[in-house]
Amino acid sequence: MDFFDNKPGGFAAARFVALTLLMDESQDMFYLMKWTQGDLKKYSKELMDTLHAKAKEIRVNPYFHSRMLNLVHQLELSSGGKLAFYGKTIQSELGVDEKGNLSPDSLALETALVLAKQTQQPSQDIAPYIQQAIGLNQSENNRAALAERVLTYYPELRYLFAN
């Protein structure tokens, strides 16, 4: 709640995050989630404004970051608006170990790629974010980890990784 500065929709956003921890297949959960999604849609613009304003704070906690990406997926926004939010996660420097595994603070990349794909925007719309990520991930290990994940969802963008 505090993260959303008690703005309209903040309670719905907090409720969404809490419910995703507790989800089950009960009828009660169905109605709670339906009510929550209705509120999220109603306050989509206000919530998105807060998320943009607090983008740096979101990335501090990997779990919270992932939850906020999923929250954006629930909002009633244009596909391009959602893609712009996911793109900020995609165009980040990755933490990668010697085996090519992402560090906990970089795991949101995969969530962002999946949700960006679900916007059904043309792959060329995501290409600039990926190009930015390539520029930030120049080590062989980081670049390979980035390519593996990007090409899983966007194989048609293989040319971005050609050198």
Q: Helix proportion of residues, in percent?
A: 55-70%
Order of helices and strands: HHHHHHHHH
Tell me the span between the first and last alpha carbons. 47 Å
| Rg from alpha-carbon coordinates | 17 Å
Overall mean confidence score, pLDDT: 89
Topology (SSEs and partners):
Layout: H1 10-22, H2 27-42, H3 44-53, H4 55-58, H5 62-74, H6 79-90, H7 108-118, H8 123-136, H9 140-153
Helix pairs in contact: 1-2, 5-7, 6-7, 6-8
Keywords:
9 helices; elongated; 66% helix; 2 domains; 163 residues; mainly alpha
Q: What this model shows, in words?
A:
The structure is a single chain. The chain is mainly α. It has 2 domains: 1-76, no CATH class; 78-163. It is 66% helix and 0% strand. The chain has 9 helices and no strands. α1 (10-22) packs antiparallel against α2 (27-42). The relative contact order is 0.10.
Task: Write a compact overview of the structure shown.
With about 160 residues, the protein is an all-alpha fold. The chain is about 65% helix and about 0% strand.
